[in-house]
Each structure stands twice: as C-alpha cells, then as structure tokens.
Amino acid sequence: MDRKKFLKKACLSGLCFCGFSSIAIGTNNDNDATSDPNIKLQKEWLSNLLSNLNQDLDKKVLKHVIKKSAIIHYNNLNMDAVLSEYVGDLDKFNNFLETAWGWKIDYNRASKVLLADENKNYCVCPIIEYKKDINTEAICYCSEGFAEKMFSTVIGSPVKATVVSSVRKGDLSCIYKIEIP
C-alpha cells in the first residue's frame, strides 16, 4: 500500500486525528482545506507557538523538546505495525519508501549514511500549516524524531537523523540524513 493510500485509509477510518487527512485526500499545507474552525484554530495556535519558541528558546533545548513529540504522531499512525515487515531489512524498507512513498534514497554502505529525500515540493507535516511568512521550521525537529524512530525500528538499533533540507527553510524538498551505527 502506498503512503497516500495508507494515510487516507487511517485518517478516514478515524485512526488519525492529527490533520493528516488533508494530505491523504490530496491537498497540501500551503492551501489548507480544513473547514473545521477548531482545527484551523489549533494549527494557527501551534504555528504561532513554534514561531515564538523558535525565536525565544535556545536551539538545542527547542530541538530536544520538539523531537520528543514525534512519538505521538508515530504511535498515532501505528508505525510499528506498518514497519513490522521491514524490521531487519533496510534494503526492503528503502525500496518501500521509494516505490510506495515516492522518496529518493541514497545509501552509502561504506560510510553508513543514508540520505532520504521526501521528493515533494511541499511540506507534508500534518500538525501545522506551512505559511511562508511564519517561521515554523522548528517543527522539522519533530520530523527528525519521526525519521529516527522509523529507521531505528527497521535497523534494530538507534540511528541519528538530521533534517539537511526543508521546504520550510526554502529548500526544494525535505531531506533527512540518517547516520547508522
């Protein structure tokens, strides 16, 4: 099952309340199609909060706090079950990411560094809208946490993920650097 179909099924069946439904039904966060005023309020509130935290908090502290929040989204999507058939088989998982989710994977086995490019020109974050005039790039730390948890689960040991490119920072797509021990 590809990522879009999986997310659409999860969201429409009520398993995902995080806002991913906007992606699943074919919209992106540049033009949020949410008609529910409460969800819109929550996304705007979170955008403002992240913008202010990004300005006022030490980056190391901010990264630590936001990264820990990734587990909520990971668990909400029941990722352990999604990843279960890939545990211990990074090549199979990378193939899944490329074919089902449309990612571009570049894995250097010698350096044990993997670059995972989401290969999309929009932010897929379901939590807050992406608006070019509001600096919400701190949410990318959540993406780092999600990528770390996802690849750590597949590999069977902790990895380090870093966002090296982000649509929210003005880049063409979001790219994660995964360092494998």
Set out the fold topology.
Blueprint: H1 3-12, H2 21-24, H3 37-56, H4 59-68, H5 70-76, H6 79-83, H7 90-100, E1 104-108, E2 113-117, H8 140-155, E3 160-165, E4 175-179
Antiparallel strand pairs: 1-2, 2-4, 3-4
Helix pairs in contact: 4-8, 5-8
Short description:
The protein has 181 residues and is of the alpha+beta class.
Structure description:
It is a single chain. This protein is an alpha+beta fold and 181 residues long. It has eight helices and four strands. It has a four-stranded antiparallel sheet with strand order 1-2-4-3, covered by helices on one side. A hairpin with a 4-residue loop joins strand 1 (104-108) and strand 2. Helix 4 crosses helix 8 (140-155) and helix 5 crosses helix 8. The longest helix has 20 residues, at 37-56.
Identify low-pLDDT runs: 7-32
Helix and strand content put the structural class at alpha+beta
What's the total count of β strands?
4
Q: What is the succession of H and E elements?
A: HHHHHHHEEHEE
Rounded radius of gyration (Å): 16 Å
Task: Tell me the strand order in the biggest sheet.
Answer: 1-2-4-3
- Number of helical regions: 8
Main beta-sheet annotation: 4 strands, antiparallel
Specify the helix fraction band: 40-55%
Give the DSSP E fraction (strand runs of 2 or more residues): 5-15%
